Structures are given as C-alpha cells and as structure tokens.
Amino acid sequence: MLDVLRRESVYIWYYFSIQLEQIFRYWIFGMVIGSVISVFAKDKIHKLFDGMRDKKLGLFGIIPACILGILSPLCMYGTIPIAASFSEKGMRDDWLAAFMMASVLLNPQLMIYSGALGGTALIIRLASCFLCGAAAGLLVFFCFRGKQFFNFSGFAAPHSRDTDPNPALRLLKNFGRNVRATGPMFLLGVLLSALFQRYVPADTFAEFFGKNNEGFGVLMAATVGVPLYACGGGTIPLLLQWLSDGMSMGSAAAFMITGPATKITNLGAVKIVLGMKHFIFYLSFVMFFSLLFGMLVNLVI
Questions:
Q1: Of 258, 145, 245, which is closest to residue 200 (Cα–Cα)?
Q2: Is the pTM of this model over 0.85?
Q3: What is the pLDDT of residues 132-157, one digit of tens each?
C-alpha cells in the first residue's frame, strides 16, 4: 500500500511540476501588471469612465465602457461601489452595465494569466468579454429604458489600501496582497490539473467536451463553470489541461464566461444590486450568451 501511495505521489508531483513550470511565469507577470495598474493607473481609468458622463456618445458609449471595464483591476466587490458612485453622479445604466459586465469577466491580471492558454484562447477571451459587456449594455438600454435597473443604495465608495506615501512600498504591498489572495487557489488549480492528468483519460474527456459533441460540450462547460469557478488564476491550469485533452475552444469560451460571471462569492453582491427579478434576468443572459458564443466559436475554429 505504501509503495502504491509513494508511486502515485511521484506521478502527481511530476505532473504538478510540469504544469507549474508552464504557467508560473504568467501568474507572476500577471500579478506584477495587476499591481502596477492598481497602484498607478486605477484612478485614471475610473476618471476616464466618469468623464464620459459629459459626452454625448449615446449607445456608442458602451464601447469605451467595455474597454475601461476590462482595464479596471478591481474585482466585483470593488467594482460595485465604484459603479454606485458613478450612478449617483448620473451615469447611464447601459454604460454601467457594459462597464460592470466587462470588469467582472476580465481584468489585466487575468488577461496575462490567460496568455498561458495560447494566443487563440486569449483573443477569444478578450472578444467574449467585450461582446458580453456590449450585449449587456444594449439589453439594458432596449429592455429597461426609462426604468431603474440598478439599486446601489448601501454601497459606499471603496476604501483604498494603497495609501503608503512611498510608491515602491505601495506597489510591494499590493503585490503581496495579490500573492496572498491568488496564491492558494493558483496552487490548488495546478494540483487539480495534475490529478486530472493522472486519473482522467484524455479520450473520455474529449468525448464529452470535444468538437464531436460540441453542442452538449458547450452546455456542459457553461454549466460546470457555475459551481467550479473560484479564482481566475486557479482555473487557468485546469483549462490548459482540458484543452490539451481535447476540450473544444467553444467549450472553453463558455466556461470562461459563466465562471467569473456566476462566481459564488460575487452572486450575493449582484443580487443585492439587481434585485431578484433582474438577478434572474442576469443569470439567464449569462447562460444564453455563453452557449451562443461557445457554439459560434466552434463553428469558426
């Protein structure tokens, strides 16, 4: 028994070390970029979005709202108070919806992480986040025009922890918080991918999530993304392994949309901001968009 456990631990360590070597540099570089933007550019990004209020962009304002949402380094719990302050100043709900949706799906740090999946996957992730944010803005404009979509009461402006007067120390402290916040889930993701590689046959996985079963595979990937997604950095090793085992790019795209959009830790705050009726609308939109986009990706690639 001990010999079996020892042999299995050697196999798992081998797969773990291979995965870690492949993705570690993306994790470190992503945290560095995320910290630099958070410390030195976050306020500028949010001021650019706030400054859009005075410009008569109409529906075209959804485009810069999506771009600025992707560039914002904040998580959901940081984005909502910022959005609340924008709303209080008179920001349009469709622009806010586009900004928040894009911000939830992607940030500069996760963008760097996703580079480990390859150029195609990174482009697809960027496109899906932008288009999902734009679709959210358009739906709010056409379906809820003249009605209040968000309820930000009770959300105060976020308290910044980047307050050290020394810029180098501010950056170092932010980087340290990034390591503590993402490190455990990142390592867990690498471990899970090693276990997956050791014990789940690639042929079996490809049968469920490959292009030969693309409709069901996209649906399953979108559904699995709801309970499984806990941290962007933690899911990159899993996606890397799944793609190498035969997962279609469309299934991966669906997972990358539903995962962050329905992350358990985010849903409570989303429900408070939207209310039950709009919250159900939000979940339905996310699932529908992920399925549609995933199937379109499989048709093209």
A1: 245
A2: yes
A3: 999 999 999 999 987 889 888 766 66
Host domain of residue 286 = 23-155+165-300
Number of domains present in the structure of the chain: 1
Residue 6 domain-assigned?
no
- Rounded distance between C-alpha atoms, residue 108 and residue 239, angstroms: 18
The residue among 93 and 269 whose pLDDT is bigger is 93
Does residue 249 sit within a domain?
Answer: yes
Helices (H), the chain: 2-40, 42-50, 62-71, 76-88, 93-105, 108-114, 119-143, 167-199, 202-209, 214-228, 232-244, 249-261, 264-300
Is 5 within the bounds of a domain? no
Report if residue 10 sits inside a domain. no
Residue 301 CB partners (closer than 8 Å, separation 6+): 120, 124, 249, 250
The 10 Å Cβ neighbour count of residue 11 is 14
In terms of C-beta density within 10 A (0-12 exposed, 13-18 middle, 19 or more buried), how is residue 130 classed?
Answer: buried
User: What value does the mean pLDDT take over residues 244-261?
Assistant: 89
Please state, in angstroms and rounded to a whole number, the distance separating the CA atoms of residues 114 and 108.
Answer: 10
CA separation (Å) from 122 to 70, 81, 118, 156, 175?
13, 29, 6, 34, 23
Which residue is listed with tokens 């959300």?
A: 155
Q: Report the distance separating Cα 129 and Cα 105, nearest Å.
A: 6
Poorest-confidence range of 157-166, 250-259, 274-283?
A: 157-166
